[in-house]
Amino acid sequence: MPHRALIADDEPLLRERLALHLQVLWPELEVAAQARNGREALALFDEFAPDVVFLDVHMPGLTGLEAARAIAGRAQIVFVTAFEQYAVQAFEHGAIDYLVKPFDEDRLAATVQRLKARLAGPGPAVSVAGMAALKTVMEQLAQGLGPGSPRRQPLQWIKASSGNTLRLIPVDEVVFLRSDEKYTLVVWSGGEAVIRRSIKELGDELDAERFVQIHRSTIVNLRHVAQVVRGANETAELHLRDRPEVLAVSRSFLHVFRQM
């Protein structure tokens, strides 16, 4: 009998991408089902009894970690998440492997080889005790209390939805972000998109060495700044490379450029 897999992730584009890569790297593996959240993952697990489960750590309703606790001992588990600092702890506490979003084919190929080896041998899946230890570690990391208080990995992609389409915008290509209450305009080298996230939320997740706030409603990528022209009353204008927009630098944030 061929091995079966279940993919659980609340982002449909990433579920489909993972399924397509698995089809190429492991054609004998049947992706029996895809789940949108942890509760659906458990229901589909009972229905299809997969040998391998790819679980996004952060899902609405029931997290991937909570779903893994229920599955532990019955399948091989691969955690999928955007937070790379969990990886070492996941290995230490018995997770078969770990994929960091956005994953690449080489990394997934290594995971496939480990899964094949584990399925071919008598090795156990993640134990209940291992899952309990991992849950504690991840809670500590989420609160910044883990060993050495590791820093959260800066945001790598910004998700923008349009109808049934989810676009992943590489943060490196973002020129600037401008907010209007609950919505934020994302301007990048390939176009523009409006997302339902505040400028404060995004500012907390972006790399502070590359992205700076220049106005209460604007964040800019320093790599796309051509020059800063000082104006009257402790203000300034920021000119971009290869872009027509001129961004205002308010008095409250002018100190950012004094220190450079």
Task: Report what the structure shows.
The chain is of the alpha/beta class and 260 residues long. Helices cover 32% and strands 31% of the residues. A five-stranded parallel β-sheet has the order 2-1-3-4-5, sandwiched between helices. A five-stranded antiparallel β-sheet has the order 10-9-8-12-11, with no helix packed on it. β11 (211-215) and β12 (218-221) form a beta hairpin. The protein is elongated.
Radius of gyration: 22 Å
The number of E-state strands comes to 15
Report the biggest beta sheet as strand number plus sense, adding barrel if it closes. 5 strands, parallel
- Please give the share of residues in helix: 25-40%
- Are there runs of 5+ residues with pLDDT below 50, and where? 144-151
Structural class: alpha/beta
- How are strands sequenced across the largest beta sheet? 2-1-3-4-5
Based on Cα principal axes, name the global outline: elongated
The count of helical stretches stands at 8
Strand content: 25-35%
Q: Strand-and-helix sequence, N→C?
A: EHEHEHEHEHHEEEEEHEEEEEH
Mean pLDDT: 81
Q: What is the rounded distance between the termini?
A: 63 Å
